[in-house]
Amino acid sequence: MKRLETIFVALNGWALILMLSAMTLVVGANITLRYVTAHSLPWADEAARYLMIWMTFGGAGLVLRTGGHVAITNLQDALPSLGQKLLRAGIALGLLVFFGFMVYVGIQYAQRMQYQVTPALRMPFLYVYAAMPVGFALLIAHLLLIARPFIMAGDYKRMDGATADPLPGGANG
């Protein structure tokens, strides 16, 4: 199971790297063309914008794994050990429910947009709005993979074996 998790996280990371690389190439080529030929690609800004949307939703799960999202732990720190575990379990459950709801809403919204096309690329908006349900589904997967150690200890093991604190920089509170 740990090997599958490692592969899943690596694939998620590589997808983000590829999207960032594509965005960099498109924007860089557009800037170069603008200054060298005084003409630009009419679709470059749109493509970069949509790649950024996909990177945002696709990367949220990886950020969740490292404790990179905003967290305030004052209440948790004030509770006894059992209370902390119960609070973290409630938070994990609440997040799962919210992420599941957002997958459902995202699918509905993407389906409504399937017949409209983007102005420059002329591709269905379905492909742009599909980032939302896909991203939240990835969040569900990442949360399920780290939920047990997070609930039990308040932290979890990162892929490099180090302990990840729920807050960046190890600050609690």
Automatic annotation (TrEMBL):
Pfam annotation, one family: DctQ
Tagged with keyword Membrane: yes
Subcellular location(s) of the protein: Cell inner membrane
Family statement: Belongs to the TRAP transporter small permease family.
Species, as recorded: Sulfitobacter pontiacus
Source organism, top-level taxon: Bacteria
GO biological process, one term: C4-dicarboxylate transport
Chain segments annotated as transmembrane: 7-27, 47-65, 86-107, 127-151
Function statement: Part of the tripartite ATP-independent periplasmic (TRAP) transport system.
One GO CC term, this protein: plasma membrane
GO MF terms, alphabetically ordered: transmembrane transporter activity
Alphabetized UniProt keyword annotations: Cell inner membrane, Cell membrane, Membrane, Transmembrane, Transmembrane helix, Transport
Membrane topology: Multi-pass membrane protein
Protein name, per record: TRAP transporter small permease protein
Subunit structure: The complex comprises the extracytoplasmic solute receptor protein and the two transmembrane proteins.
Tripartite ATP-independent periplasmic transporters DctQ component domain sequence ranges: 23-144
